[in-house]
Structure formats: structure tokens, C-alpha cells
Amino acid sequence: MTNKPFFSGMVFALNQRFVKNCNVANWGHVDIACQTLRKSMNIKLSTEPTLSGDGQFLEFVTEVNGREVRCALAREALETWFWVPPDAALSRLTRAYLDGSKRIAVVLERRIVKQAAEPVVLRAEHFSG
């Protein structure tokens, strides 16, 4: 029996990810070599976040693939990862949020994949990985 693949180029959808270019080597022992590609989301962050009642979160609505999603960004995340001073005013929090919007969008995408419930809350530990 040869180790020549008997099928290739099949695409499988699996939990928000796509597996492409799979090759099975033989029937007796299944050897699969795949390339995994993540399906990207279209995320548009709001440019007008508001401060939560307790002052601990920046709340905003973002558009994800055409759907509105409520989100909250912890003040501690802004202080830890975006160099916002403790007890900063809303204007300073908003400036850090807008300046860091690309990074926030990437972390938000990861949280949306893991967490289906709203609001999607971003904490300092979500930015460390």
C-alpha cells in the first residue's frame, strides 16, 4: 500500500475555525496533516464609550459581523496595559480606548469566541495572552 493521499483539499468547518488542505496518508493508520485558518470577524468599536455607574468599566457597543454586541472594558485593564493613571477622568479613559482600539478589537474577538453571553467583559488578564 502506498502512502499517497487518497483525498486532499477538503475543507471542514469546526468551531469558528476552518481546516484546509487535509491529507490522509493510508487506511490502516490515519495520518492527517492540516492547515488551520481562523475565520476573522468584522469588528467596529464604538467611538463614544460611557463610564459605568461605579466607575470601574468603560461600556460600549460594538458591531460584530453586522450585529450589535454590548461590551465592557475594565478600568484595571486600561491602567495595566494602556498606562492610564488611577482615577483618571472619562476623557483620559476614552483617549486610551481609542488609541488602543486595534488591540482591544483583537482581544474582544478572542473573548467573543469563548464567551457567548453579553455583555462581553474585557479584564486585564485577557490582554496578557
The coarse silhouette is globular
- Quickly give the CATH architecture of the largest domain: 2-Layer Sandwich
Q: List low-confidence stretches.
A: 4-37
The main sheet comes to:
5 strands, mixed
Provide the succession of SSEs: EEEEEEEHHHE
CATH topology of the largest domain: Double Stranded RNA Binding Domain
Tally of strands = 8
- Radius of gyration from CA coordinates: 21 Å
Broad CATH class of the largest domain:
Alpha Beta
What separation lies between the terminal Cα atoms?
Answer: 45 Å
The quaternary structure here is single chain
User: Structural class, from secondary structure content?
Assistant: alpha+beta
Q: Count the helices. How many?
A: 3
| Mean pLDDT over the full residue set | 78
Strand content: 25-35%
CATH H-level homologous superfamily name of the largest domain: Shew3726-like
Helix content: 10-25%
Summarize the structure.
The protein has 129 residues and is an alpha+beta fold. It has 2 domains: 1-39, no CATH class; 43-127, Double Stranded RNA Binding Domain. It has helices at 75-81, 90-99, 101-114; strands at residues 10-14, 17-24, 32-38, 43-45, 50-51, 57-64, 67-74, 120-122.
What key attributes describe this structure?
single chain; 129 residues; alpha+beta; Double Stranded RNA Binding Domain; 2 domains; 3 helices
What does this protein look like?
By secondary structure, the chain is α+β, with helices and mostly antiparallel strands. The chain has 3 helices and 8 strands, in the order βββββββαααβ. It has helices spanning 75-81, 90-99, 101-114; strands at residues 10-14, 17-24, 32-38, 43-45, 50-51, 57-64, 67-74, 120-122. The strands form 2 sheets. Strands 4, 5, 6, 7 and 8 form a 5-stranded mixed β-sheet that branches. It has a 3-stranded antiparallel β-sheet with strand order 1-2-3, with no helix packed on it. A hairpin with a 2-residue loop joins strand 1 (10-14) and strand 2 (17-24). The longest helix has 14 residues, at 101-114. The radius of gyration is 21 Å and the shape is globular.
